[in-house]
Amino acid sequence: MKGWRRKPAVHQVTDARPSLTADIRKREVSYLIKMGIRTICLILAVVVPVPWPYRLLFIAAAVFLPYIAVIGANERSNDAPPPTFQSPEANQTEIPLHRREIGS
Q1: How high is the pLDDT of residue 20?
Q2: CA 36 from chain center: how many Å?
Q3: Virtual torsion, Cα 43, 49, 51, 57, nearest 10 deg
Q4: What Å distances lie between residue 68 and 21, 59, 60, 75, CA to CA?
Q5: Confidence (pLDDT) at 96
Q6: 0.70 cut: is pTM over it?
Q7: Rounded to the nearest 5°, which phi and psi values hold at 61?
Q8: How many CB atoms within 10 Å of residue 51?
Q9: Any alpha helices (H) in 1-104, and if so which ranges?
Q10: Which residue, 83, 74, 81, 82, is CA-closest to 31?
Q11: Which region holds residue 10: left if phi is over 0, alpha if psi is between -120 and 50, else beta?
């Protein structure tokens, strides 16, 4: 008789998604590390006397790392909680006071 019952799903703490604050903090730290590397590359390209191929490599890193850092900072992880948006009322007939233009 026990075979016909399904076992209830047991959720563990390790299955839980990280909080939105933790996800944002992780992305901020990643961005700051990438921009720190960019700053070091820029300093190495200008200050340190190295051969031109290395200097061009440092300059290329200093140019392209901001793009990579921003894309990485804006990308949400797969296990991050979805954003919560408050949808406006469908029958809204008046513009809210905080959205009115000056002079209207």
Answers
A1: 81
A2: 17
A3: 0
A4: 22, 15, 12, 11
A5: 60
A6: no
A7: -65, -40
A8: 7
A9: 20-46, 52-74
A10: 74
A11: beta
* Distance between CA atoms of residues 82 and 80, nearest Å: 6
Residue 30: partners with Cβ closer than 8 Å, 6 or more residues away? 69, 72, 73
Determine the pLDDT at residue 68: 92
Structure tokens that stand for 35 in this block: 């921009």
Angle between helices 52-74 and 20-46 (to 10 degrees): 160
What is the 8-class DSSP label of residue 14? G
d(Cα 19, Cα 14) in Å, to the nearest integer? 13
Which regions in the chain score pLDDT beneath 50? Answer: none
